[in-house]
Amino acid sequence: MSDPAHGSWYFSVQLPRDTPGPARFRKGGFRTARQAATARDHALATAVAGTNPRRITVEQWLRRWQQSLPGRVRRSTAATYGHHVDYYRIPYLGNHTLTGLRPAHIETMFTTIGALPTRSGRPVSAATVQRIRATLRRALNMAIREQLLLVNPARLILLPRPHRHRPQPWSAARVAAWRHDGQRPTVSGWTPDQLARFLTFTADDPLYPLWWLASLRGLRRGELCALRWTDLDLIEGTLTVNHHIAHVHGRPYLDSPKTAAGHRTIALDRTTVTVLRQHQQHQQQFFSDARKPWQPDGPVFTRPIRPDWLTHHFTARVTASGLPPVRLHDLRHGAATLALTAHTDLKTVQDMLGHTSYAFTADTYTTVLPEQARQAAETTAQIILNAQHKLPRTKPG
Questions:
Q1: Which terminal residue of the chain, N or C, has fewer Cβ atoms less than 10 Å from its own Cβ?
Q2: Nearest-angstrom CA–CA distance, 247 and 83
């Protein structure tokens, strides 16, 4: 909370009844809300450490668990856990004692969450519900390790499995339906012709090389934003992914890939090398005109690009092009589909995308294009036709 009289932040907490000292604790003089929240959580964790285990509430335990996260998980992961704790766990479960928490309490929480609309007006997705449960399970597993619980009640909850929507290409029929009443697939992708039209439309866009890389090589938006010239070898025709831009509390920061598979080297075709060489020459000329030294280890895209801004800019460019809508992330799916259409083996596509799981690549990022489906149907029918032609001809009757 802010203190108008002093221009600073303070916190006030109600400590457990069996905690030594006053039941309510207040402290101020913090420059930011985050500093006050950190101090509050530390005060709670310290108080809980000396509390009768049977009197520890779920809120107190979750605050203590949050204090243990820095240095053990990624900053973005800790921020996601914190969001789950503040918006879901504590409001619905915080008043229960840790030892008194039952599966029925957790089921009631999920029933309530499922009925609440998100900022987009849609209900919370099954995938989000699963992630919320995973956060709770992790926090309660720590209580089991410290012998405060015997069983993790979050493990006993049955939740609907997330439905993985298979991407649908924008066929002529789907485009017509979209233009008529706005009807669109949950997850969609452009056909090669539609992608070519978008790249032609954005040919004069300063971010054209970025759209090209996203479309043909399938880089994530955070990886594109973090790309530096030292990550490119335009002689050998390779691109190495070493970093990505992540967000915590709305602020971007440079981070390493989440998995070992995320650290990868991607082969570049000659056309992509040409696109990047031309972009490099334009960038060097821009710095020369501004009488600034060009940095060979500088960012490939000199304008400070945030991943969230990039998403909004891409959406605006798609709208201006008149093409059916796709998400920026759908270009990544499209890159995998195009590679498979070119008869690239799935293992190579997996490495290009930086996936740990071969099955995940196959299930998530591959869609049969209409042209492929028609060719497969024709080939199948031709097998029967060829067999029929080999049969001896007999006269009826």
A1: C
A2: 13
